[in-house]
Specification:
5 helices, single chain, mainly alpha
Length: about 80
């Protein structure tokens, strides 16, 4: 819970950015989105139930959109 609280401050800032636009820094995916995706994905997967119940709706939608994107699916495809 201690580490979750520390990370949650960062998640709140990301959610705030995503309330203003579809992606973190622009109207299109940027390096920031790609760089932060693994962090947010891992954070969410540690306790999926908790993450689903957080007030970070914009961040949740952003994460889901990234996970369903053609780029992510192509990169994560197992050979």
């Amino acid at each position: 819970e201690h580490y979750r609280a520390q990370g949650e401050a960062f998640l709140a800032r990301l959610d705030s950015l995503l309330q203003q636009r579809r992606y973190l820094l622009a109207a299109h995916p940027s390096l920031a989105d790609m760089a932060l995706l693994p962090f947010v994905r891992q954070f969410a997967h540690v306790d999926r139930e908790w993450f689903a119940q957080t007030p970070y709706r914009s961040l949740q939608e952003w994460l889901q959109g990234q996970l369903e994107s053609e780029l992510f699916l192509a990169v994560m495809a197992k050979q």
